[in-house]
């Protein structure tokens, strides 16, 4: 998957360098805030990759939300750990409800043993009749 013709890892490296460059020239961010920005960028890239490959979208969205909360807390949001976990639990429940309506089994249903043995008997009869 490419974003504007480039690999996601390249974009993440660009974000990390841009954050460092900005702080070197006057943007006042702590080390924790820089890490939060980079984590948020990684979460967004993860969601984009998951959406494009249609694999693990709900997990990527939950990761994005978790990174967003960490980013907000890093920039001064005053939520207790209880509040953060409550929001994450609610989001996980919503994701589970949505996922349940979107997924189907990748494998066919299991064939009963009786049906399988009848099919085996018939195949054996046909093989013996031929020869």
How many domain modules?
1
Elements, N to C (H/E) = HHHHH
Low-pLDDT parts are: none
Which structural class do you get from the secondary structure elements? mainly alpha
Cα-atom radius of gyration? 25 Å
Question: How would you characterize the largest beta sheet?
Answer: none
Quantity of strands, as a count: 0
* Beta-strand proportion: under 5%
User: How much helix, percentage-wise, in residues?
Assistant: over 70%
Can you describe this structure?
There is one protein chain. With 131 residues, the chain is an all-alpha fold. The chain has one domain. Helices cover 75% and strands 0% of the residues. It is built from 5 helices and no strands. Helix 2 (31-53) runs antiparallel to helix 3 and helix 3 runs antiparallel to helix 4. The longest helix has 23 residues, at 31-53.
Itemize the secondary structure elements and their pairings:
Elements: H1 8-24, H2 31-53, H3 57-74, H4 81-102, H5 113-130
Concise account of the structure shown:
This protein has helices spanning 8-24, 31-53, 57-74, 81-102, 113-130. The protein is mostly helical and 131 residues long.
Features:
131 residues; 5 helices; single chain; mainly alpha
